[in-house]
Amino acid sequence: MLQWFRKQPVNSTASGNGGDLHIALIRKLIDFLANQISSPKRATSILSQIARFKELPPTYQEKELPSLYLKIENFLVNEDPMQKFTKSLLRKTLAYRYEPLMELENFRLIFEEDPIQEFLLSQAFLKTLMLKCGNTIANADEKFHTSMSEWIFHIPEVSHLKLPFDLKEPLPEAPREWIQLLAKISQKIYNYLEHLTGTEEAASLFEKSYREIAETYRPLETFYVVVQLLPNNLLDENKIGLLSGEQIRNVFLNKVAHLQKINEELSRKNGELRETQNELMIAQDTALESVKLLHSVLDTVGEGIVTADSTGKIILVNERIQRMFGYKEEELVGKNIEVLMPEKYREQHHKGMKRYLKTRESRALGERLVLEGLKKEQDVFPLEIQITETQIGEQIYFTAAMSDISEDLKSESELKKTYLDLRLSEQRYRSLMETLPDIVFTLSLDGIFTSLNPAFEKVTGWPREEWLGKPFTQLVHPEDSMPALKIFQKVLQGSPASLPHVRIRQNSGQFAEGQFSLTPQMQNDKMIGALGVARGKSPEIDSSEALQQAEDRYLKLVEAFPNPMGIWVDDKLAFVNQAALQLFGAPGDEALLDHPLDGFISAAGRETIREWLENIAPANGKPVSRQEKLLRLDGEEIEAEITALPVVFHGKEAIQLIFQKSEPAPRPVQNIVENDAHFQALFHNIPDAVLLTDLENQVIEANPAAGKLYHTKPEELIGHNFLKRVPINLREAINQNIYMLTHGRGDHCESVHVRMDESQFPVKMWAHRIEFRNEPAVLLVVRDISDRKQQDYDREILNHQLLEFQKRAETLQAELVELKQQGEGRENLDLQLSEFQKRAETLEAELLEAQQKVSALEVELQNVQENSEDSSSLIQELRTRHQVAQARLQNAQLKMKKLGRMIPVCGSCKKIRDDDGFWRELSEFVGSPANAELLTGVCPECEAAVTLHTSEKANNGIK
After folding, report:
1. Could you write out the DSSP letters of every residue in 673-734?
2. What is the pLDDT of residues 65-110, one digit of tens each?
3. CA pair distance 164, 200, nearest whole angstrom
4. pTM attached to this predicted model
5. Given the DSSP bridges, would you call strands 934-937 and 903-906 parallel, antiparallel or unpaired?
6. Inter-axis angle of helices 58-74 and 44-54, to 10 degrees?
7. Closest CA relative to residue 752, chosen from 772, 775, 729, 773
8. Is there a contact between 452 and 443 (Cβ–Cβ < 8 Å)?
9. Sheet holding 934-937: strands in order across?
10. Phi, psi of 863 (to 5 degrees)
11. Which of 531, 723, 845, 927 is most buried, most CB within 10 Å of its CB?
């Protein structure tokens, strides 16, 4: 069963001829070793010990032989100038030449292979311990001492004996497996002695046994195995200090790393590897070379490596640690690790180690921590450290990997600033998206909606969720889809583009007129989609409806928010989103709603969470945060950061809560650039003017559209008070309006602003409260509404002119009727009167033409009201046509007046014909106008008289 064990008698002392043979061979061995020393001057100490050894009695020589041999071996292998032997060669030579000495158990141990040597050292320690505590145990429990000694002295051939302390374990088959069992036996013996004699006496017995073994076998590389048999509470600086640096490395490198693999390989191929002594020696040499190679690897690692035991004593350091802290290896090994840390950390470290050894719980293990180190020159420097734990037997060791981050401190500061900028950029982007009255959206490379802001619902009436994931071409009129698609293709080629006229589908089935622009979205110099802004017409709503819509949009935004979020009102949770349900492990809203928040906080934080929430000032408007352990419904605790912000919910003061799991800060990632790029793209490409101001109205940021609006450069607006762009008499009112908008009381306001050239123009404004550079700020969106105001004014003028045209047309029509009536009673007018009738007909035709033009003007005015975009040019054209029509009407009116004042007069007798067709004397004509023009003609009587007179004259001439 136990092929690896050389069967030897329990008592190593030979008797008879064998004893004399051993004594003779011991002297020959010592003489042989002394003759191998090439420089006696360097070996005076060794030679003195050899001389004293020869004077000892034979039995003492046999006992002291292993100790003296190991000292001579160390000199010959490591210090002798000639160095004729390696350790392996020397031991092979002696084992062959002095084979009978291998019968001595205490001496044979040195020449055994490492696993057997480790086993024999462990057994030798327990044998020594049982001999030293024989009197103590025998007096109290002689039966236990006898059975315990018999078992220890006969291992591994103890299958016929009962396992001590009633341990329920099978007997090991490999040497190193025995060491684990012997370590448990050693701990049991210590506990028994401590109960029997007290802690001090038990520790003293172990101390004496350990030192006796150390005096002889400490130079062996495998001596560290004895340390594994000591109880943890007995490991102190004195015992660890007996180990060499090589032995300490063997404890934590040889066992943890390469030799552990060799042990597995040796266990699996136990029979094969023990067929010959040479093969085992080769395996031993390979293991030693692997240890040296591992040392070389550790010294080339980029991080400093330091290993310490559970008491904090340094066991191992690599070259990087030595350079980092300015120490040499021998100055650190054996010292407490607190020598590498500033004074302010030592007490905390001591308490943490004590708590960990007691509870086995630590937040530091496995985590990368940023702390400070203390150099040999007492200089403090920042370092990054990660601690791992290794347990060998009952002993615990800690390995720390350290990196000097002095050079990275500046970049770390920039990293924090980058993350802060990211959060602020996200807040600004989110606030801008919520505040803008225009539709803001993002598209994937295949034209699919990936995000939509709340204005989408206001303009179209569609829920945003219904359109996310759908093609944007389905939202526009079928006739406009092809132009929109061409614009999108142009943007995918890297050029911004816009479509001035587009019809957007509404939930009601109608189409709203609008326009939109697209900007490419890039990431890592690759196209990832497009950012768009669409402006459409929507009916104005009153302030109460706007507040309700704003609250609805807010709830939808909270519900869709990716982070867990809730609203705390009247000491209870009034609203939670889907992410919060997942965080707390709740199956539905009813598990969280109407419950106090402290019910979901660990016991340690419940006393303060309610007071913290109640002390958040609603008027302050600043978000505040704290770290808490959240309690899920299944009892699991989660470390998280709670951010609280005062809001108004259903007309009541409330607290908006955002829960963020605490995680180690990641390295810079692409999404920082990505999110900030989204905000910058939207900020710089939106057609409306956007201003960021502090609470004192000082401008912090301005986009290019703002500079264009005020006829200046955007940077010239920064640092100046925004109210300077408002007339003095309106500043107080606009300041009050902004306050109302930032507190959720209204959707927008209208006012008048002043450009840099002192010209005034009407504007429409939206305002929203945000965080900018970790300070409260106001996001203002300003739109020039001069065109709309001008259109309203022109519409009023046209309506007024239309009324005037209608009144004048009615007057002209009445005059025309009167003229017709007058013309019908004058059937006997002469040829000049017929001319008057022709002129009246012409005038009637002109009047009819004027009425038609007025009707056309009414139609065009109606078109202007329906399509205000072309109103300016139409208004100008209508004005021109109106002036022409007005001139013609005035000309017709003058002609009518002129014709109306003409009176028929006889050219001979000067009688006047009245409206009834009678000819009357001029004096009898009443109401004749003083400036009336007379139409000369011939009445019938005069015509008869003239004819008679002419006839008489003719007759007289004939006569």
Report:
1. HHHHHHHHHHHHH-SSEEEEE-TT-BEEEE-HHHHHHTTS-HHHHTTSBGGGGS-GGGHHHH
2. 999 999 999 898 888 888 888 888 999 999 889 999 998 988 999 9
3. 24
4. 0.32
5. parallel
6. 170
7. 729
8. no
9. 919-920, 912-913, 903-906, 934-937
10. -65, -35
11. 531
